[in-house]
Structure formats: C-alpha cells, structure tokens
Write a structure and sequence with these properties.
single chain; Ribosomal Protein L4, Chain: A; 2 domains; six-stranded mixed sheet; 7 helices; about 35% helix; about 15% strand
Length: about 210
C-alpha cells in the first residue's frame, strides 16, 4: 500500500496514511481514462443545434424566371442554398451525443485517474478542512500553506464555508466524494482530499 503524508491546514505534516491499493494503486488503463473523458465531454453537449434546409425555409415556391432566354443561370427556387435567405446544405439537426460506458469501466477509469495522481505525487491528504466563516482569504491562506494553486478540493460532507470560500479563487474548485469524475481529477494539477474523503472513496470503490 502507498504511504502518503497527512498535512494540517497550516501546511505542516502531522502523520502518514496508507492508501488502499484497490483504489489508489491499480494498474492504470489509459484507454478507459481517455474514453471516460470523451464520454463526459460528449454527454455535456446539449445537441440542440438546428438549421433549416431548403425544404424548411419559407418562400421559394415559384420559379424566379423562365428556364431559357434570360441570360441568367437556370434557377428553380429562391430558397436554394446559393441564394440569400436560402436553406443550408446538410443542415445540423438536434441529436444525442451521449456515449455509454459500463459501470465496471467507469469505476476502473476513476481508479486509474486517482492512481495517476498518487504516482505523480499530485495528491495531498488533509487531516481536516474546516473554516469558521466563508472567507476567500482564509481558503487562499490554506492553499498557500500547501503550496498549491490549480487544485481540486474533495470533501466528504457538505461544508458550505469551504465551498463559498473557494468559489472566487481561480482554478480551484470543490467537489464531494459522490461527484468526483475523471475529467476534473486530471484537469487540475493537484488533488486535495480530506482524510474522511479518502475513507469514503475507499469504502465505495474498494
């Protein structure tokens, strides 16, 4: 099992913690990690883009001029794609971009992402993270003590003060253990977990 240091909010090491290899020490599957990221980005798409084809735009029912003898190219409708106000060729229509992954694949992708943070020394475990009031300055002080900037802070239980204190800090976001995902874990340089969050993740995914 991997041993990681546990820090307090002042940035001082207060102990060590063993991480469960079933969650934080698996063999990294790059393919599933990639697939999980693609899936999440695809599922975020609304798929509501729409443009009208020549059969859907209004007008154009009458032939604009006779077939021959005008000197113009022959035209059948003023709503053909080459006309201003005409329809769009191969116009986009609403569609579902969602991609499916099996539950076991999703779990392994998440474990792979967590393992990569451990192997790259980009995971920090906090003994506890509590703030008496919602103050951005207080949260920024904690981050400065830990010497991190772009980070994902994962909490085990609702902590309104921490969430509100983090909201105005660029490149730092909070999440709960039941909302973490592969994309966010990989997007931020550092993954910050509280001890209770680590226990909760291991309980669910081990």
């Amino acid at each position: 099992m991997a041993n990681v240091s546990v820090y307090n909010m002042e940035g001082k090491e207060v102990g060590t913690m063993e991480l469960n290899d079933a969650v934080f020490g698996v063999e990294i599957n790059d393919h599933l990690v990639h697939l999980a990221v693609v899936r999440q980005l695809a599922n975020n798409r609304q798929g509501t883009q729409k443009a009208k084809t020549r059969s859907e735009v209004s007008g154009g029912g009458r032939k604009p001029w006779r077939q021959k003898g005008t000197g113009h190219a022959r035209q059948g409708s003023t709503r053909s794609p080459q006309w201003t106000g005409g329809g769009v060729v191969f116009a986009p229509v609403p569609r579902d971009y969602s991609i499916k992954m099996n539950k076991k694949e999703r779990r392994l992708a998440l474990k792979s992402a967590l393992t990569s943070r451990v192997q790259e020394n980009k995971l920090i475990v906090l003994e506890d993270l509590t703030l008496d009031e919602a103050k951005t300055k207080a949260m920024q002080t904690v981050l400065n003590n830990l010497n991190v900037s772009k980070a994902l802070v994962v909490l085990n239980e609702e902590n309104k003060n921490v969430v509100l204190s983090t909201r105005n800090i660029p490149d730092v976001v909070t999440a709960y253990t039941n909302t973490i995902n592969v994309f966010d874990i990989l997007k931020y340089n550092t993954l910050i977990l509280t001890k209770s969050a680590v226990a909760s993740i291991e309980e669910v995914y081990a």
